[in-house]
Automatic annotation (TrEMBL):
<dbReference type="InterPro" id="IPR006076">
    <property type="entry name" value="FAD-dep_OxRdtase"/>
</dbReference>
<protein>
    <submittedName>
        <fullName>FAD dependent oxidoreductase superfamily</fullName>
    </submittedName>
</protein>
<dbReference type="GO" id="GO:0005737">
    <property type="term" value="C:cytoplasm"/>
</dbReference>
<dbReference type="Pfam" id="PF01266">
    <property type="entry name" value="DAO"/>
</dbReference>
<dbReference type="InterPro" id="IPR036188">
    <property type="entry name" value="FAD/NAD-bd_sf"/>
</dbReference>
<feature type="domain" description="FAD dependent oxidoreductase">
    <location>
        <begin position="45"/>
        <end position="421"/>
    </location>
</feature>
Amino acid sequence: MGEGTYHPNENQVLPVPDPTKPYWRSELHDLDDFRSTPNLPSECDIVIIGGGMAGVTTAYHLLLENDTPPNIVLLEARQLCSGATGRNGGHCKTKVQTLVNLLPTHGPDGIDKLVNYVQGVQYGIKEIVEREDLDCEFELRRSFDVSITSRKENKDTYDEACKDGSGWTKQTWFINNRLAEMTTSVTGAKSAFSVPACSFWPYKFVTQLLQKTLNRYPNALNLQTRTPVTSVTQADGDVTNFVKTPRSTIKCSKVIFATNAYTSGLLPSFTDIIIPYKGMASHITPKSIVHPHLSNTYNIDFGPDKDVDYLNPRPDGGIVVGGGKWNYASDRDSWYNNIDDSTLFPPKALKHWDGYMQRNFRGWEDSEAKVESVWVGIQALTTDGFPHVGRVPGKRGQYMLAGFNGSGMAMILTNAKAVAKMMREEREFEDVAQEFAIPEWFGTSLERMTTA
Ligand SMILES: Cc1cc2nc3c(=O)[nH]c(=O)nc-3n(C[C@H](O)[C@H](O)[C@H](O)COP(=O)(O)OP(=O)(O)OC[C@H]3O[C@@H](n4cnc5c(N)ncnc54)[C@H](O)[C@@H]3O)c2cc1C
């Protein structure tokens, strides 16, 4: 990690040095290692901790069309966008399986709320890409949820929901056994759903958006990479926050924890609530481009004894594929509560990617597709699968948007807007959640923490 590398001790929940290199970080931006000033400011209005999708989109919305912009310092432990956002699958969607799982606890209205929320995020990302002219291979597309085994319960739930006229079924389409393999090109597909999705190059989105924001507000926003925060403290009865780093301490009135999987490192009360969870992904390229282009993204469900992979075909003919969890799941310590994204899973697990496209996609059998790279990343696991957003329970002047799970990018953008609005207008989460149609169960609270 070069100058300023901080080596956390083994009990610290902090990003580790020298993470594996994801495909998405193959073209580094000038901001990757950037520090706006040689020294940290000693004071500011707001410190944002975390330079991923959550931290950067919150900074953007705090400053957007703001005539009285606050002074913001954005602190990132490693390089910009070197966490989960820089090492994920790159598509935003909700799987039908997620909706089916939600039914018993949140009912049909809850499902509609989540689907509408995710759609708002997809359109919101598109709007920013267009407004800010971001060159990040954004595509508004469809995604197949392919099942290799029957998964009859999902079809039954879908049929019931269609009968009831549930909103989410209007954008969803079921593909039966006879047509599944032909329609999706997935070898052995038994059925599939087609759902709305978007995809983009997350690293390019985040770095370019931050560059535009820095250009527009050079005096208000200060980026400091390679600056891990080791604690945030408040004096008794005082709302001032002291944000401590190995370089110096910053005094500020407000702090945002956009630290996702690492949140418990700074907020220990979240230790069993937001759990770091290691996953792997790969980049596969054919010897020459396989036509026709796979225009959808995918989740492939290999059955109850295995798990779900995710695939994001790239415009250049390559493909980002992640998952393969069942190849290492039995070694729980290797992924659960694990923050080490500097080491890959054992070779047996990596074999999952060998010949992957040839095995699983019709038309790719003779593609001579090769694995170009494999990497790992740390996402968050929360007991209910949803993020914690709003004021940090029991603290004043502290806000969070963290705990984004495996499909986390589909949950972030509108939450970032909401947190920015809470801070700009001194509002409460419940209030802005209603305004932005955010599922109310994303809100963090002592009650949610104790029942988690
Ligand atoms: C392998 C993998 C595949 C995935 N695939 C998908 C997908 O296809 N679609 C999808 O929607 N989601 C996917 N996800 C999940 C998604 O990437 C995350 O939910 C999302 O990127 C979270 O964004 P974030 O900004 O909250 O977190 P991050 O991008 O992790 O950003 C948090 C940042 O905070 C920094 N940080 C943490 N602690 C400190 C500290 N103490 N001091 C300073 N900085 C700190 C970290 O270095 C990091 O850069 C995947 C995740 C992984 C790991």
